[in-house]
Amino acid sequence: MRTTRFIVPAAAGVLVVAGLAGCGGGDDKETKGAGGPIVVKATDTACEVGTTEVDAGQVSFKVTNSGAKVNEFYVYAAGDRVMGEVENIAPGLSRELRVELPAGTYETACKPGMSGRGIRGALKVSGTAASVAPDAALSQPTASYQRYVTSQTAALLTKTEEFVAAVKAGDVAKAKALYPVARTYWERIEPVAESFGDLDPKIDGREEVVEEGMQFTGFHRIEKDLWTTGDISKDGAIADQLLTDVKAIVAKANAEKLTPLQLANGAKALLDEVASGKITGEEERYSHTDLWDFNANLEGSKAAIAALRPALEQRAPELVKQLDAEFANVEATIGKHRAGDGWKLHTQLSKTELKELSDSINALAEPISKVAAVVAR
Amino acid sequence: MSEQSTEAAPVVAARGKSLSRRRVMTLAGVGVAGVAGVAAGAGALVRGSDHAAANDAAAGSVPFHGEHQAGITTPAQDRLHFVAFDVITKDRARLIALLQEWTAAAARMTAGKDAGLIGAVGGVPEAPPDDTGEALGLPPSQLTITVGFGPTLFRDAQGKDRFGIADKRPAALADLPHFAGDALKPEISGGDICVQACSNDPQVAVHAIRNLARIGMGVVSVRWSQLGFGRTSSTSRDQATPRNLFGFKDGTANLKAEDAGLLREQLWAQPGDGPDWMTGGSYLVTRKIRMQIETWDRSSLAEQEQIVGRTKGSGAPLGKRDEFDEPDFAAKGDDGQPVIAETSHVRLAHPTLNNGARLLRRGYNFVDGSDGLGRLDAGLFFMAYQRDPHKQFVPIQTQLSRHDAMNEYLRHVSSALFACPPGVRDDADFWGRALFA
């Protein structure tokens, strides 16, 4: 059952979850829900889900965004484990989500503005379809996280395209607005991206890591031009290269199969990113949008842990409790620094506020560093 | 003597057990006779080179359990790493659990073992080690770890009782007053809990603080810390009096471990002094005192000796021959002026001028690099233990801050006060048990 769940981005960007082994090709297969997709009406302030009780099996949602902000829709299991999600639902558009749900209680969430916990609702799934094999606790995480990676890379590609277009059009204001948004999707899956050593420095390298004979390119090069001189008239080629590199890394990331141990180490690596690069303001030294990255790293770490949750609950329930409490603490701490749909600039935070953030990350990273050994045993 | 069996085990039964990083157990000053025999053989294997007997004592261990905390009357070690923590949890149970965890880790580390039960290299490859490893192979080096509780642990700045212990706050722990000339930086002053790690090996002291800070993440956060080298006081008659960075002997008239009567009178909180949980404990005042090294060095020998009130060479009080001669404050010179100036440090700090108040000083020199203007960022990290700071440190420092001629060369930049509870009695006891009972 190990490799039976996967996800492919369909032509129109609709994410289609193929079912368990026997139902592999069932793109047009009827759902076992109430006949037809569950209608989700998303606005900037509401998230109306057509029903709150469905039968176990494949469930599909049709999410329509009638708000003014870009939206996302998630189905979460306990501990915010992502069972399925659609990202980047532009105003006026509809997208479909199909997700395989065993019996249990779940939460649905719309995220207008693509940030925060979202507008939550309960979803009860009953029945016995799609029983999960007993050894699934550790075979599932990779598939579950792969869904997450694929959704993030799709959005990364879209937002990078928009960012590159704005840079090439010389639209400084638009490029500045898109910069931290595109980077959010990058930062959520950074350990995966970083595993492709040659591409990472081209996309995300900071000025000081550029070696002799190598050009300073990628996000941070354009960031520097946007925020220091405001002159991006010569950045067209760099922008094109960025998009080429992002496309390459997206293809690689989507093909990558991470082991549970890699997931555990990735969850820790994301927090190390926060501790070493974001708290200090080094990562976004020109734009000072470090808190966007901070939150994206945090979300990525949480997604990796959520994918491992069934295994952790079996093997180390106390650790799960500790992680839940510390994730909540970090979220509450960074939550104080929201600004609209985004985040305050690093330079707007006092030293005391930064220390509080640092303390909260340390408190989370210590227990997270214990996950790998639990998964490996 | 469970220490003994644990220490005997590692060479034979290291697999899957805590790997003792320090198999060198030699005769320390007191109380480690139980482990000495075991160590003799194993120690030679590890060290590989000869050490003089004196070095063996300096490498040995100091008993962790006892009536009083170690690290107060323990003969002052050469090195210090001191840290003040803020408690960042609101959860009393988590704080108590941390104090228990800390106590267990400190008992292990002071015995020369790893901070955690698994050790620096004893665990599975996927897990981060529960000891950070930089003390592997090093002897205990007389490591002592001493804990104290600051006023803000009891009530926060708004007066809120943080952990249900406000009614147990001793009167002696009332905030220190502002002294003339204080230039205190809040970010390196105060703190809810302090940990003093002293050792003859700086790596061993740093290892202790680093591992305790790591264990505490999520419950406490490092507020400030200070490294010290070169003890500036002797706390035992067996020790020679060391010099501070002004080049003078410091701590000649210090309270010493041998003065049993004085220690009761001046050092240890006695029954009835305050809340019972502090009986057998002591109050610690720390002051980071920046020295204006360069201007001091340009002042004449005569001026330096006038300011201190002692000769620079022997440390004898002015007008006397030997270091330990009693100063004669009444003596006048040919010019009719006091031989020991009215504004000299030794006079103003002397017990006879302060109602008999004495301190057990345990400070260290510090050099925190330079200050960007080409001057050494250096001075004295002053530490003094006492029975009641408001009857001892406060009147003495009030005198000094007003009149001491040395003030021209000093700046107090950090200040803190802590109540250090009595000793941890046994494996079932822990730091703060009586406070949180």
UniProtKB/TrEMBL annotation, chain A:
Pfam family, one: Peptidase_M75
Ranges where the Imelysin-like domain occurs: 142-370
Segments forming domain EfeO-type cupredoxin-like: 35-115
A GO cellular-component term linked to this record: periplasmic space
Signal peptide: 1-21
InterPro entries: EfeM/EfeO_iron_uptake (IPR050894), EfeO_Cupredoxin (IPR028096), Imelysin-like (IPR018976), Imelysin-like_EfeO/Algp7 (IPR034981), Imelysin_sf (IPR038352), Iron_uptake_EfeM/EfeO (IPR053377)
Keyword terms of this UniProt record: Signal
UniProt-recorded name of the protein: Peptidase M75
